[in-house]
Amino acid sequence: MAGRSCRLTGREPGSGRNVSHSHVRTPRRFAVNVQDRRYWLPSERRWVRLRLSTKGIRTVDRDGIESVVARLRAAGEKV
């Protein structure tokens, strides 16, 4: 997954339509709130950069960076 997607949750942009006052419908995208974050990985004594959605950031805060990195590696992601 590249671009505006979360490495942890897999969230990607959705699509829909803008509906104007006259009810004319035009296509639009719902972008994901993706942010680049740096986390200190104590076991490896280095920083890791992750591109996460806000839900992914809350997941790291809840579960801890060690378990999240282990989960990403088990899924085959390079961290």
Automatic annotation (TrEMBL):
InterPro entries: Ribosomal_bL28, Ribosomal_bL28/bL31-like_sf, Ribosomal_bL28_bact-type, Ribosomal_bL28_sf. Belongs to the bacterial ribosomal protein bL28 family. It comes from the Bacteria. Signal peptide: none annotated. GO terms for cellular component: ribosome. Gene3D superfamilies: Ribosomal protein L28/L24. Residues 1-24 are annotated as: Disordered. NCBIfam families: L28. This is Large ribosomal subunit protein bL28. Keywords: Ribonucleoprotein, Ribosomal protein. It comes from Actinomycetospora endophytica. The keyword Mitochondrion does not apply.
